[in-house]
Amino acid sequence: MPAGARLEFVGIARPMERAESADGGPIHYRVRHRTPLWRPGEAPTLALEVREGDARFCV
Asked: Can you give the residue ranges of every domain in the chain?
């Protein structure tokens, strides 16, 4: 993957009780935003990738 910025968001259910498992509980969605490096004067391009789950409320 070429250099650039990458950010990943993970959505979990609103915790009503402490999760029993070490991973924190089930995941609703996982999305990744990526942008390759851009030159001065150019606008960056943003790519969204849904990695897991239903991300309809986060995009």
From this structure: 4-53
